[in-house]
Amino acid sequence: MSARPHRDDFDKYMVPCFSPAPFIPVKASGSQVWDQQGKTYIDLAGGIAVNALGHANPHLAEALKAQIDRLWHIGNGYTNEPVLQLAKTLVESTFADKVFFCNSGAEANEAALKLARKVAADRHGKGKSEIIAFQNAFHGRTLFTVTVGGQPKYSADYAPLPGDITHLPYNDLQAVSDHISERTCAVIVEPIIGEGGVRPADPAFLQGLRQLCDRYHATLIFDEVQTGAGRTGSLYAYQHYGVEPDILTSAKGLGGGFPIGAMLTRDAWAQAFQPGTHGTTFGGNPLAATVASSVLAQLDSALLEGVKARHSWIVARLAALTTQYGVFSDIRGAGLLIGAELAAPYRGKAKTLTNLAAEEGVIALIAGPDVLRFAPALNISYSDLETAFARLERAIVRFVG
Fold this sequence. Notes:
- The chain is α/β, with parallel strands linked by helices.
- Helix content is 40%, strand content 18%.
- Strands 4-12-11-10-7-5-6 form a 7-stranded mixed beta sheet, sandwiched between helices. It has a 4-stranded mixed beta sheet with strand order 1-2-3-15.
- The longest helix has 25 residues, at 301-325.
- The radius of gyration is 21 Å and the shape is globular.
- Pyridoxal 5'-phosphate binds at residues 105-106, 138, 223-226, 281.
């Protein structure tokens, strides 16, 4: 029998795109994770906002096991019952008329950007191709989406990059108003910038983008890969902003840990994609669709109210830690997507703090070098939160010295 895998095996066998933690998780339930040595962690990261209902959620597991005995994959020359049910639920729950399924947020954004350019070309000609995006945004790792994301550190190595993409300051409506023109085919925006520091959009900013896109016949795309599936206390963040996009992208929490992505759009946009114009091999497969439907079935009003209550609890605890230790300068976000920016003496050391937190038994995230990011399961218990923040406080005591 072969030896048990060790963390060193990552360095030996894996392409080094990542630098994983020194421990290897082997089992998880709810918001608790155990590593190979049996050490327990409280998960405040949620697989980067993916495990919306916790690890090994029994409802998701039961749904998946039932579907495994029926149909796994059939190919896009056919449809299947689970994907039709999922599409119906999403359409009836949102602004959208049609849905395209894929496997990830990057693929969903790729589809959205391609659709926006095709709609503009079909309606107005090839000259209407500019995409406006925002600095410090993140939209995926394909060549197109990583270029549209406003972080050159992720795209510069892959030049020449796709063209006709403009990056403007986030939350600066005047900058957009000064730049947008009849050449603009789309504006893509995260209602809350995630990877770039957990920065919520001002309501007036999103409202203004909607008005500008209407004026210049541009497609408004909301990237809700991280903010969707109940993460902010609404099914999608646009619903509490009161601004409807033309296209919305979803992934991460939609599958509760099973890979799925979705592009939601209005019928007038959807018709620009016809057989052969875009596609996917695995997108909309019965297994992923079944799990996603089970996720949505659990995102009822009580759970979403619980998200808002947990937000208040976490923000209050972070504020108390700030008062006692002076470690954070700003706490921001919505629902269970929360960013805590490090105070000036500790800037650039977010990773150091998350490493200390892991040593104490808490899994947390960063959002850039200066921000701790929290994206736990939407149903995390208060008991687990109490344990996690007691451990986080121990890490902070070590951090501030």
